[in-house]
Amino acid sequence: MPINRLIVNACPADAERLNMAFVATLKSLHLVDRNDPICEIVARKVIEIDAAGTHDPREIAQEATRQLGTSN
Question: Which domain of life does the protein's organism represent (predicted)?
Answer without folding.
Answer: Bacteria
